[in-house]
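Q: Structure tokens for this one, please.
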Amino acid sequence: MIQKVEMYRAVCDRCRKEGWAFSTPALAVQHAKSRLQWQEINGKLYCPDCVEYDEEIDEYKPKSKEE
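A: Here is the predicted structure, written as tokens:
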């Protein structure tokens, strides 16, 4: 038997890299942040390739689009 299933995955707001699929949006975000080391900044998700640590403000920030 085949059954249609609705799933959710975290997607990087900068490069569009996708995380694993989960049954709820909250689980997708939780996994991306805890296991994949993604950062949530101003309500957006960023993969590790798309953020950099800013020592002046002591926080992660998205890389600029040019990088």
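A few notes: The chain has a mean pLDDT of 94. Helices lie at 25-34.
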